[in-house]
Predict the 3D structure of the following.
Amino acid sequence: AYFYYLNLPPVEIPSNGYVAVAANSNIKLILDNFKEGDTIEMEVITKPDWDNISMAITGGAIILEDGSIPTSFSHNSPGRHPRTAIGSSKDGDQVIMVTVDGRQQSSLGMTLTELASLMLELGAHNAINLDGGGSTTMVARRPGTRNVNVVNNPSDGMPRKVGNAVGVISTAPSSPLEGLIIDTEDKNVFVNTSRSYTVRGYDKYFNPVEVDPDKVKWSISGLEGDFKDNTFYPTSVGSGKIIATIEDVSGEIFAEHEINSLSFPVQLILNEKLISVQVNGKKKFTVIGKNKNGYYAKINSDDVQWKVSADIGIFEGDTFIATSEGKGYIEASVGDTKAYCGVKTAADIVVITDDFEKTNGTYLSYPADIPGKYELSSEQKRSGKYSGKLTYDFNDSTGSRASYLLFSDGGYELGKNVQKIGIWVYNPSPNPNWLRALIYDSQGERHYIDFTQNMDWTGWKYVEASLSGINKKPLKLARIYLVQIRDVPDAGSIYLDDLTFVSVPDPQKEDIEIPEDTVPIDEDNRNVVYQKDENEDYFRFSVFSQSGKVANPLERLLLFRLTNKINSYIDAAVFIGNNSSDTAKKVGKPALTVNNEIKSLDIKNSKFIQLNTSKQGLRLSNPVQWKWFKHQLDYFEGDNIFICLTAPFQQFSDKLEAELFQDILTDYRQKTGRNVWVFYKSDKNANYMERGIKYISTAGLDIEDLDPSKTDLVQYILVTVKGKEVTFQFKPIVP
């Protein structure tokens, strides 16, 4: 909507009067035919007659009429935006409701013509565009549940308050159990660990049906393992199906859920690596595991052995409880695989953030007509000369009501180590209200925390609210308020003083001796006996990066040594970098110079693919290369794919494209069984596995302060291909 503000004095609206709002050509109609002070008779006639309309909603342009898209729209909103539309099928038996996300990287939105085409494709015969933009929101109830949740991604980052909406409410009666849905937190699980499952029941109308857990029979197909109640313990690696079955009067009802049992984890990842915890405070931990092939799974806390050094705390389930002041570390282990988190436990640091000695906010209420006031007052004070007096009147209203202290300048920033918020409250007499606070996280999402749900005291009392569980920091305290959720009449005032933030000191990693996490061992990083056989798919190639021009005699000597090695006993070479072509020309073997071109090279049973990532992505660097890249993969019939990039996918400006790149490679590996390796330029020599794909980086000559004493750090990657067996080593150019 567009609003135009004119610098004119306000006018009084007569009792029982109306405001006439005109737009477009109607503005001239009003100005030409009426003057200030005229009495106007207004008659509203609708077609069809609104006496026969059972429901109506405001909308914009008709985008489909009798199966056709209009050549122009009655209310045009050009460009791609989030959209909301509703339509009906030709026979009138179906209503089609659509939201299209927009104004975000994952979805640009649609034009009205594109929206009309979508509605037509979905089966609509007539359709209208509703309020879109930041108002575009859809909520839905999952089968077998009672609550509705937002299922799209509103462009404001959170749902916006809107004036109206269309709701579809099921009035179908409850009926017997029709089906089951299995829920779990992760379909992946490591062998010899565990995964728990629950079921939801629904009837033929998708109403929720309560399911007795004791009547659910659990079983597994495709894998070996055992169930204990609703928890499965796999003893073999592979894929299978979890099956939940209930014997019902109508027969056997069952559901299936995919499960992937992964080889044992070789790396553990904790949600924290360095923490501060108040004495008697708590911190919940999660553990993610990664196996040798780079696949991840969440690990149940019961499968983790927890240890705490220095006698500073204990574990209860997945939660660390600090018992005394000190510093040390937490060890999480699954078998021989370990991960660590540094811990500092300390007494509270208490800081009075606001002493209520100067104006710090204004009054706000919900609903807006709740009487009340916020002001500084000397009537009661905990310290200093003043406190904040919040006056409220919930006598003449029903339902949930609230009176707010809305802090100035958007509220108070909370430091990353603030654990609790405290405040002194003077209560003249017990009352049935709650005292709460509104917190905004770094994503703008709201969080409500309780100081108390029982204001049963008289006089001054210190109350605290915990910030545990709010993880998207930094946080901001926006409001403190009284709320009445029951229809209980009440009015009065409370006094607030000495707003306090309770935190713990920042831990310093250098102050705590923390063991190193278990480092995965790459089974392909090894020396192999190699004897070239022209009749077999055997060959060796090197990978080396050169981003800059040769700067000094030392670099020239190192490149000379490398080309000699390649020409002597290596069969092919890959040079990554825009300045490596001169070096490649000195190699008398097949060579791939990875720069801003896209090309491929076939050697025996292997394909080398060079992609252009010069503009931080495939699409931006060369719009046609995605199609070309897919073609190279789809029509290859060998054993090994080697992909070469000038920059890693982590540097793609479009993170969704980076995810797509990984997904395509992983899917290709799983469907074909072929080896897929990715080489790229970086500032260090490193390697790791990620979802079945091996990623190897080469630093080349980019060693900080390179001089003759550091030549052993200048390494090339020597890759040995023996059919489907591929191994590698980082080899120094100068022994």
In short: The CA atoms of residues 138 and 152 lie 6 Å apart. DSSP finds seven helices and 49 strands in the chain. Residues 655-672 form the longest helix (18 residues). The longest strand covers residues 491-503.
